[in-house]
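During the no-cost extension, the postdoctoral fellow (Dr. R.K.) reprocessed legacy sequence entries with the updated structure-token encoder. One reprocessed record is reproduced below for audit purposes.
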Amino acid sequence: MAQAIANALASRTDLNVARRQRQSADADVRLLDEQRKPAANLVASYSLNGIGGTQILRQSGALGSEIVGTASGGYLDVLRSIGSLDYPTWTIGLNVSLPLGTRAADAAHARELRAQLDYRTALVAFDLAQEAP
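Re-encoded structure tokens follow.
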């Protein structure tokens, strides 16, 4: 008889759903707790640039020097310079976020904790009802 009751309780879908909801609520509480903490992210990017169009040729190559001619170019020059990796760009940075106003996160965290408390209270009441003859 005890084995049959144990099997019946183990195969109840409502209890299985309640257990999974509790696991989901636990994950939500952990996420909300993490959102209230500062975060630091390392960011890196790499891109290729191309140069095309008419180029102005200067005598010394410095800006402001005398113009000695022009070299015409077009869209295909841009694609060639990208393909030959002539002008790569690297960017590395650190993003830091500090939550200043955590009222919304605190309220959501409190609601999740309240939901967990309600669930545990219902579970204890259910266990007590099962134990009563």
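The two ends are 14 Å apart (CA to CA). The mean pLDDT is 80. The remaining legacy entries will be reprocessed before the final report is submitted.
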